[in-house]
Design goal:
Main location: membrane
Strand content: 25-35%
GO cellular component, one term: plasma membrane
Function: May serve as docking site to facilitate the association of other proteins to the plasma membrane.
Structural class: alpha+beta
Pfam family, one: Rad60-SLD_2
Organism: Hibiscus trionum
């Protein structure tokens, strides 16, 4: 079992200033797992939310966090406050141009049938 020192309390700050959390994670938690948590907890009433983990960027202490890193690897000794809450900023990337074209094409290619 992880000790209290191996736990990190995090809140995710969205671009509109609202927060998800705070929630406690073990230091061994990967950034990819944090992104999955953001996806699962994304407020339903917010528009333009992320669809996949690739749409989410997490920023902590001015650095974009890499999916394969753990919380323990990402913590900055300068910013580490025992018992404090770490705020990570969440950036949602807009769909890539290719994805936008595919979305538009799928909307245009819809078949509508009317039976009278």
């Amino acid at each position: 079992m992880a000790s209290v020192q191996d736990q990190v309390e995090i809140k995710f700050r969205l671009t509109d200033g609202s927060d998800i959390g705070p929630k406690t994670f073990p230091s061994a938690t990967s950034v990819a797992t944090l992104k999955e948590s953001v996806l699962a907890q994304w407020p339903k009433e917010k528009e333009n939310g992320p669809r996949t983990m690739r749409d989410v960027k997490l920023i902590s202490a001015g650095k974009i966090l890499e999916n394969n890193k753990t919380l323990g690897e990402c913590q900055s000794p300068i910013c580490d406050i025992t018992g404090g809450v770490t705020t990570m900023h969440v950036i949602v990337q807009p769909p890539l141009e290719k994805e936008k074209k595919e979305i538009n094409q799928s909307k245009q290619n819809k078949c509508v049938c009317v039976i009278l």
